[in-house]
Amino acid sequence: MEVAGLVLGAIPILIEGVRTYSELYSEWDKSKHLLAKRRRELSIEHIKLQQTLDHLGPELAMDTIMVEPGSEEHETIIGTLKDMGDSIHKLREQLDINEQGLPKSNRRAKDQWKRIKRSFKKKETIDLFDEIHRYNDNLRVYFEARREISSDKTTVQVSVQQTRHISKICQQLRKDLCTLHDALNRVRNDTCANLHPSIINLAWHQQNFNLSGNITLSFPDRDTCHQSSWSWQGVKAEIERKEPIKKMNINRSAMATNLESPMRAVRLNTPVDDIMEPSTASASTTDSTPQLSEQILTLCSIPQETLSNGFLSSSSVDGEARIKFEKSLPPGKSMDTLPWRTLLTNASDSSLQQRLVRKRNMSRKDGLAIAAAATWSVLLLCGTPWLEETRVGAKDITLLADSASGKPDDSGFTGASPAVQFDFNSPSPPGTAGQEPPERGPEKPHSMIRHRALFALAILLLEIGLDRPIATLEDDDTSLLKSYEIADGVVDELYDEMGDAYTEAVKRCLEFNFEGRKSLKHFGNESLRQQFFHGVVAPVQERYSQEQTRHRVLGDIKEAKLH
Q: How far does the signal peptide extend, from start to end residue (predicted)?
């Protein structure tokens, strides 16, 4: 690239000029410190820039590695290189060095040295050195972040992500999710033909998000709960479990504590409008003036009862539990759902695109946030009542966005949070209301589709990586086989787009490539969950983290340009 070549060639001219000054004026530069220091600094900057450009490889053009020419991102990088070149030119003028790296002035040596010495110590000169250093660092970090996407070195970063998986915490969260589902299912009304949907927000992919005990639940607004489409209200759920008192070896002080506080509170959520940050809500404590609360008896009343200290109860072999709800959105604010596939560049649903994303598709970072959230949701929800292992596409990933705007803001889709929807009641056929559903035998997987839920996840990861829809997931063998053949034919395209680790994760899901006996390959088995985390969740999470880093560096570069 011409701009990069000019910058790369301008730094040695400065180095040569400083070296010439050092030789000419060594008699007056007693300490030798000033010129030597600046010469070293320039040499280091030259090496750093040379390495940054060399790492791109001789066969790759910078225009390609920096994404599509003419895009905002491309212009930012080109602008940074030009700014760096301008700073070098100003510094050369400030130090009175010509294009051959020689002093311009013909003054007496001693007088010239005094002027040069003043120039080196001027704030403007120091600032120019700092600018060159800052521009160079921004470019280096940016290109390294992009290069790591397709580098085998990603396995090192993936291993760091793998340390996030804590088996006991994962198991406890799955247990809490089952408790929540059981409590909601207990109050469903079989005679009611309304859907009664609920949504679990997915935020476990956030780097600073505490995995343990964080669930956000949303219900339809009470004014629209009987319609075919809903506005959603976020609620905070709190689970209280009774701790059984052991009959043997009872510690009296511990017993006294248990008597004072017989319920163990677990905070299960973070606000919907703050889903991208860790929850700051503290666990509830016993109030000196406890408010009266009523047990929620039907799903139909949940939108209203969550506003008045309503609670649900659950009882299982693990003990009794109580789930309390608290509205988390400000008054008058609600959320709408948005199918994530409509945000792909080549999405076919033009009506939604025209209404919501007329001139903007989701960024790579936002797409990878959905991908990472989806892998975490499978890890924590698959095999629980929230997400079946034997069905495809029944509970698609959706997005929750602020219904006030009705469209993404200028920053993209960062305000929309991934979520999974579950309908507790399905419309009953005429004459069957209140009857038990017919028994359904276990579904036999297709010979090529060995795990339907992971196959659906593979399609999601593939479509996000390629930024285009490739299949329609209908729950019948013919369409599934066709979708598999399409996916298998294009999956290798991901290597160039998303890197080795991400692509191998997609292939694992597509082929259900996990070790162990067939009878143990289900998400109730800790061994499979461990393999799934290491082979799928961690690589996708790391790819998302890389994109976050690249996005942040690009923002720093743009901010530096403004200053």
A: none
Q: Is the separation of the CB atoms in 271 and 236 below 8 Å? A: yes
The one-letter code for the residue type at 402 is D
At residue 260, φ and ψ (nearest 5 deg) are -75, -35
pTM over 0.70: no
Q: Mention every residue, 6+ apart, whose C-beta is less than 8 A from residue 18.
A: 35, 38, 39, 42, 95
- pLDDT tens per residue, range 286-316: 444 445 567 777 777 766 655 556 778 877 6
Q: How far apart are CA 549 and CA 365, in angstroms?
A: 10
Cross-strand partners of 384: 387
Beta bridge partners of 238: 267, 324
Chain center to CA of 175: 24
Beta-bridged to residue 339, according to DSSP, are 398
Give the per-residue SS3 of 351-374: HHHHHHCCCCCCCHHHHHHHHHHH
Write the DSSP symbol of residue 429.
P
Per the CB < 8 A criterion, the answer to whether 498 and 149 are in contact is: yes
> In degrees rounded to 5, what are phi and psi of residue 235?
-130, 150
CA end-to-end span of the chain, whole Å? Answer: 26
H/E element holding 254? helix 252-260
Sign of CA dihedral 290, 296, 301, 303: positive
Structure tokens at 475: 């729950």
Query: What 3-state DSSP class applies to 275?
Result: coil
Count Cα neighbours of 322 within 13 Å in the Cβ-side half-sphere: 15
DSSP 3-state helix, strand, coil percentages of the chain (rounded to 5)?
50, 10, 40
DSSP characters over 151-215: STTHHHHHHHHHTT--HHHHHHHHHHHHHHHHHHHHT--TT--S--EEEEE--TTSTT---TT--
Residue 116: how many other CB atoms lie within 10 Å: 25
Tally Cβ neighbours within 10 Å of residue 404: 10
Please list the alpha-helical segments (H only) found in 96-163: 109-121, 123-147, 154-162
- Under 8 Å between Cβ of 225 and 303: yes
- With beta carbons less than 8 A apart as the criterion, state whether 263 and 241 touch: yes
Distance separating alpha carbons of residues 104 and 90, to the nearest angstrom: 15
CB 462 within 8 A of CB 490: yes
Taking the C-alpha atoms of 551, 555, 558 and 563 in order, what is their torsion angle to the nearest 10 degrees?
Answer: -160
- Residues 143-200 pLDDT 10s: 655 554 444 444 545 555 555 556 777 888 888 888 888 888 888 776 676 777 777 7
Rounded to an integer, what distance in angstroms lies between the CA atom of residue 149 and that of residue 157?
11
The C-alpha R_g of the chain, in whole angstroms, comes to 30
CA 100 to chain centre: 50
> Are 562 and 412 in contact, with CB atoms under 8 Å apart?
no
Q: Over the range 430-456, which residues count as b (16 or more CB within 10 Å of their CB) and which as e? A: eeeeeeeeeeeeeeebeeebbbbbbbb
Q: Of 409, 411, 410, 413, which is closest to residue 398 (Cα–Cα)? A: 413
Handedness of CA 344, 349, 350, 351 (dihedral sign): negative
